[in-house]
Amino acid sequence: MKGRAPSRRRDANATLLLASTLLLVNLGLSRPGRAGASAISVSPACGSAQTHFLISAAGFRTLSPCDSCVSTIFVSIDNISNIAYSVSKNRGCLSDIGPVDLKALDDQCHGCYLRPGTHTAIAFSATDCFNTSGGIDNPDPGCVQATFEVMASLPDPWANDVQFLQTPDLRDSVVVTFNPPGSCGLPDCSAIYLIQTVRQRHLLGPDTLCTPLLAQTYPDFSSTDLAKMQGSRTPGCTRIDANPGDVDPYLNGNDESDCGTTGRTGTNPAVSVACDIPKIIGGTLADTLLDEFEVDAYCSSGKNKGRYLGKTFWIYKATPGTIGAPARDPRRGPDLGPPTSEFLRADSLWREQHGVSQARPFPAAKGGTKCP
Amino acid sequence: MSIGSVSRRAFLSSALAWGMWANASCAQTLSPYSDFQGLNQPELGTLQGKLTLLGTREHRTYTLAFDTFGHTLDISVFRPFYRAEFVGGYTMDFSSPKAFKASTSQLAALIDSVSQVPSITDGGVDPSGALSFSMSVVKSGVTKVFESVLDTTDSRLLFGRMLGALATNQDGAAAVTKFACFLGLLPGPTIADMTPSVSLVTRGFRKDRASGQYVGKVRVTNTGAQALSAPVLLAFQPGENITVVNGGGFTCAAFPSSPYVVLPVGTALAPGQHVDMVLRFNNPDDDRIVLSAQRVYAGPGFH
Question: Per-residue pLDDT tens for A21-79?
């Protein structure tokens, strides 16, 4: 991925694509179409090698008609390496790209992008259109850039992610803590809540089954309530961990049974803390009852409203006739990346059922400057 | 994080907790309900009670506690009286209990009212009982505790008695109603959904520069043949991080539980009549306000 040609030059892949397109082209003239202001964002603008910097670019000029054109958008870091590109399919114009998770790419090349210092993300759009003479026109390319800062290290918001504290009646309560480091490392957010999903399964011999909801609730929960809970559960047995009547999906929100504090990022950061105390007795239906929890830090207010800031995991196991106990998930640890797809499915179902707009996991491309 | 450090902490915590429970397991003797009848004013001043769900708990719940004005709630006095067979069930007592205050006369009325339900005052454990109803009082310097573990039938009866005794205590009645609703144990029907009998028109919301709030107007017209008896409630979902300023709280008549406003209809909204109401919202992110899941409820019943 390193040492490629400068990003403003046509990428070799794009050239090949264009050459093949020459054989198929319908000759015609293209005129300027939508010409929105191009923009690029790197969010957050400051972080460490553990930060999931998301790069998005949008608003590049498109042409009308565009069926004789091929457009490509490249993203590069520090003008020395193209880290991602997108080529229009079946000829046509592209106006945006992303989000590109720079940390995921950095992991693939073992730390080649997220070195300490100030870096520049550049998005470059090139379009080639075939004219009536059989030649190629190159409408003005677009290019925008934005800088971001990588610090040598930052405190981990999940440093004390899950703790198990015993109550005086011998139950383990679970305390989840997301502690933003300050104005660097996470997107701006004025209210951070913790949303938890639970995947409820029975392990019976070699079989794994969704735990029946009826076995999980206070005996008199109505069939209507059960239907509501069922309606917010994914085929993979996962749902937002909330009571049927809860107003919000947060562990530390405004429902009567919620507990904890609301966090925030910025110059005056605050820790987001939540608690949970399940008490489930293993039934005779299974060898083991296994609840798998994913907790995601969620921004509910501010310019990054709707974004997720990181996730962690824990589990709860119970065997027949015994009260279960919580524990760390031995297979998964915390990170600052996006939620799992199973979490997003459950979250989407809950929001749909509750008339709440869907989360906006990725930042909109906004800002940046024109390339010099 | 260091797994090792967590394990050590958990071990220490466990050892400490075991010591505490070792004492508690020799549970002190519970008192009969009759010890709580005919209390004098100073004794009523020390009375406190709580409701705790002891059963299986997939989700977070909470303990609802009460005492009188001027008294400092301390539900740790119940710990030595916990029943050993429900070990682990009282956990919510240690996690942010919700509480309300009542006058001593309301507490006395509550005790008198509940005294008429022998299946509660027997101080026993109902088969499949899961809701603990406990009270404590200090008499002659001695703390006395009563507990009855109720099944769903008795739980509903208890909630009904409590709501009757707290009829003039708005906060107390609301707290009990909310808790009963949370458990799905309301002692009566919820308010009727009259949405099919009305038309709803919501006008666009604008930002009031003076207050920073978003203001809009809603018109509800009775299109049915029957009058809608007060109270008439309009419930809706305003969107994430958008809160109604002039609302009446959250109604559990709706699913999901929704914020609502009480429409100013007087005693009823006659057929063909309409009522207008200005709605005000806090909307710190300046999002577009769309009131989804609009429902209109009217008449008697829990909300």
Answer: 333 333 344 444 444 588 999 999 999 999 999 999 999 887 777 778 888 999 999 98
Nearest Cα of chain B lies from the Cα of A145 at a distance, in angstroms, of 27
Chain B residues whose CB is inside 8 A of the A168 CB are 17, 20-21, 24, 79, 94
List the alpha helices (DSSP H) in A166-307.
223-231
**Residue numbers in B near A356 (CB within 8 A):** 237, 239-240
Name the residue among B3, B6, B256 with its Cβ closest to that of A354. Answer: B256
Same structural domain, B135 and B198: no
For residue range A221-237, list pLDDT tens digits in order. 566 667 777 888 999 99
Same domain, B38 and B148: yes
> Is residue B61 a part of any domain in this protein?
yes
A113 Cβ neighbours under 8 A, 6+ residues apart: A77, A81, A83, A102, A105, A106, A119
Is the CB of B257 less than 8 angstroms away from the CB of A168? Answer: no
Please report whether residue B170 resides in a domain: yes
Here the CATH number for the domain that contains residue B196 is 2.60.40.710
Are B178 and B35 members of one domain?
yes
ipTM of the complex: 0.78
User: What is the separation, in whole angstroms, between the first and last Cα of chain A?
Assistant: 24
- The answer on B255 and B197 residing in a single domain is yes
How far apart are the CA of A347 and the nearest CA of chain B, in angstroms?
13
Quick check: is B218 in a domain? yes
Residue B299 and residue B194: Cα distance in Å, rounded?
A: 9
Contact B238, B259 (CB under 8 A): yes
CB A102 within 8 A of CB A52: yes
Residue B14 is nearest to which of A166, A173, A245, comparing CB atoms?
A166
The Cα B136–Cα B138 span in angstroms is 7
Asked if A219 and B152 touch (Cβ cutoff 8 Å), the reply is yes
Task: Tell if the CB–CB gap between B184 and A251 is shorter than 8 Å.
Answer: no
Same domain, B63 and B128: yes
Domains and CATH numbers, chain A: 12-150 (2.60.40.10), 162-354 (no CATH)
Full domain range(s) for residue B135: 30-183
Question: Same domain for B196 and B266?
Answer: yes
Contact call for B255 and A218, based on CB within 8 A: no
Same domain, B117 and B48: yes
| B139 and B215 together in one domain | no
From A165, A167, A305, residue closest to B241, measured CB to CB: A305
Are residues A217 and B58, on separate chains, in Cβ contact within 8 Å? Answer: yes
State the smallest CA–CA distance between residue A221 and chain B in angstroms: 6
Angle at A65 between CA A61 and CA A68, to 5 degrees: 95
